[in-house]
Amino acid sequence: MDDDKMAPASGRTQPAALRRRAVACMYSKAYFQALGRLPVHRQRERMTLALLEACFPAGSLSQYLQLLAPTLATRTQLQAFHSRDYVDALHEFGGGNSFVEETQLSVAQKKARQQQLSDFELVDDAYVFPGLFDYCSYVAGATLTAVDALLHLMGSQSDTRVLLPPVAINMGGGRHHAMRSQASGFCYVNDVVLGVQRLLTKGNIQRVLCVDIDVHHGDGTQEAFYFSEKVTTVSFHLFERGFFPGTGAATEVGVGRGKHNNINVPLQRGITDTQFHEIFESIVGKAAELVQPEALVLVCGVDTLARDVLGGFNLTSDGICACVESMMALTLPMLLLGAGGYSGADASKCLAAVVATVMGQREALPDRIPEHDFYEEYGCAVRLWDQAIATLESAAAIRSNRNQQGVSQKRKR
Q1: Angle of helix 84-93 relative to helix 107-119, nearest 10 degrees?
Q2: Is 177 a catalytic residue?
Q3: Interatomic CA distance for residues 19 and 23, integer angstroms
Q4: Looking at the domain assignment, is residue 16 inside a domain?
Q5: Which domain holds residue 387?
Q6: pLDDT means per 10 residues in the chain (413 residues)?
Q7: Which of 82, 177, 237, 277 is labelled catalytic?
Q8: Less CB within 10 Å around the terminal CB: N or C of the chain?
Q9: pTM for this entry
Q10: For the domain that residue 168 is a member of, what is the CATH number?
């Protein structure tokens, strides 16, 4: 076949399979080291990127994925959503020497300190640890950098017949429980809110559709945009008595100009891939049709996996990636944030599949995990796609020690 026959006809759009998508992913050694300070995730993002690099040897990953070093968010940038007092508290208590300093306090000073920590909910499942403020600055900064990269890619795409809408990824983001002046559920700064705000202001975007598939309701994001007419939030989550955070009823629809812009999809324990995706595609498709957004945000928590110790759903990587594909089918620029996922090796494998899906290269992933630096972390689970659906009995056994993992079931807000 000659070149003329191979090229698409002038003025025609190429099939999606032949069009390329620019994908940027936030990474630097310093950033991933900061992410590792969060005890519940440790090496998750490092394992994910290392797995992707092993699956795309000889530097071929760079053909599909642009790695960008994030900058740290400033205190002023954090205060675009969070209160000044709260940011000050994160800085005061989240420094590397905070624990050393506490040993030098008097009994009265320790009591006052504990009261301050309690006021900002920097306790229980959002306790302070050395390097916390750097961690917060990096998480927020990475999402802001991702938004800037997304906007740059949007502005540089002169021919949409060749290039699909871009995607920017922050695997360490998606901290959707953090409130304006309180931490919650391993979340200290709400980078989801900060990212959406930046899309609206710097990008001059009028409507954003923010979809959350973490197993836990995105209560912090809901609270931030409950009155907004520019941001539509859709959260798919497990909803039952005693399950964190206790919010997310279908009746919570927004207030004032934001009425009906907040959509909660409460789901039952044990939902499977097919069931979840059918509900997801129906609701997100209808929301996009009504809202007509200019940009998408996907909070892609993978704690919906069947074996997640803090979950309750029966999903596999297939189900989660199907939702990612449905989002990309809307053909809009998208910010993708990592959010929850506490099953170690399973979470890293699933996130790798998600990134490969965004790159349009999931079919290129091998069946077995290649040998690499983190190979031994996967134990016997050396197959990439061995996430069998859990039985109700095994799921209950896996999660029986949930409260011992440092997660408190907080009051309903």
Answers
A1: 130
A2: yes
A3: 13
A4: no
A5: 21-405
A6: 35 50 97 93 93 91 96 98 97 68 73 88 91 97 99 80 88 98 97 98 96 98 98 98 97 97 98 98 98 98 96 97 98 98 93 97 92 88 62 43 40 37
A7: 177
A8: N
A9: 0.88
A10: 3.40.800.20
